[in-house]
Sequence to fold (113 residues):
Amino acid sequence: MKMIEAIIQPESLDAVKNELYKENVGKMTVFKVKGCGQQMGYTESYRGVTHKINLMPKVCIRIAVNDNFVDTTIQAIMRGARTGNIGDGKIFVQPLEQCYRIRTGEDGEVAVG
Fold:
């Protein structure tokens, strides 16, 4: 089992979800987050005062998958999020030690679904 976490542009969320649904990956948690990477933000002026905005709005998608869905999930996220521009995002894959379904008490791969 793996935990896949993707940080993407907010405007890419619908495209990523559609690509995931095509691959039968429908269980996910989505967070609104802020961060900076290569984009390094931008400068704006408001009422004569210059502000450096370096934390850009992003979306974090967290998906727990069984090992046989890891590559499929990663490829679906890439298809939906890739524009070719700086700031498209990152995908992190981490081992998932255990998973429990609270409703039934199931654990392991069965609980991930």
Notes: The longest helix spans residues 70-81. The chain has a mean pLDDT of 92.
